[in-house]
């Protein structure tokens, strides 16, 4: 079985308290990690889940394909399509506005070239057991900090 990375982000309010989580598995071995940010957006948490999951996979030093499963169209379209144009346009959108979350996109862009990746989209809350699990973990990471104050 190939390695799988299942990743998700969550936010209570947008912006608000955020959490991210990922599971890395080869069918037997599982690595589960999560984290949070005090004042963030859902898109940033989705990106963080992938960045941290890829970093975890890189630490394993495995030369195998990694199948990435996420429910974020923003991240999947961004990494598969939009990022190429953004880089050509000096990190500007087609509307000539700065790319949102550029700091995270550039980190992700540096992680991707040396990996054999396949991206799969799954609908959130739709019975994908591992994705439903990371969704719960990400929401728990965010909710642990819901009493923190996020300046609006």
Identify the notable features of this structure and list them briefly.
152 residues; alpha/beta; Nucleotidyltransferase, domain 5; five-stranded mixed sheet
Describe it.
With 152 residues, the protein is an alpha/beta fold. It has a domain at 3-71 and 115-143: 2-Layer Sandwich (Nucleotidyltransferase, domain 5). Helices cover 39% and strands 28% of the residues. It has a 5-stranded mixed sheet, with helices on both faces. The longest helix is centred in the middle third of the chain and has 19 residues, at 42-60. The relative contact order is 0.25. The model has no long low-confidence stretch (mean pLDDT 91).
Strand % is: 25-35%
Distance between the termini: 46 Å
Whole-number mean pLDDT: 91
CATH superfamily of the domain at 3-71 and 115-143: Ribonuclease H-like superfamily/Ribonuclease H
Shape: globular
Please report the first level of CATH classification, the CATH class of the domain at 3-71 and 115-143.
Alpha Beta
What is the CA-based Rg, rounded? Answer: 15 Å
CATH architecture of the domain at 3-71 and 115-143: 2-Layer Sandwich
Secondary structure: elements and pairs:
Layout (H helix, E strand, L loop, with lengths): L2 E11 L2 E10 L4 E11 L1 H19 L5 E5 L2 H16 L13 H10 L5 E5 L7 H15 L9
Parallel strand pairs: 1-4, 4-5
Antiparallel strand pairs: 1-2, 2-3
Short description:
The chain is of the alpha/beta class and 152 residues long. Helix content is 39%, strand content 28%. The protein contains 4 helices and 5 strands; from the N terminus they run E-E-E-H-E-H-H-E-H.
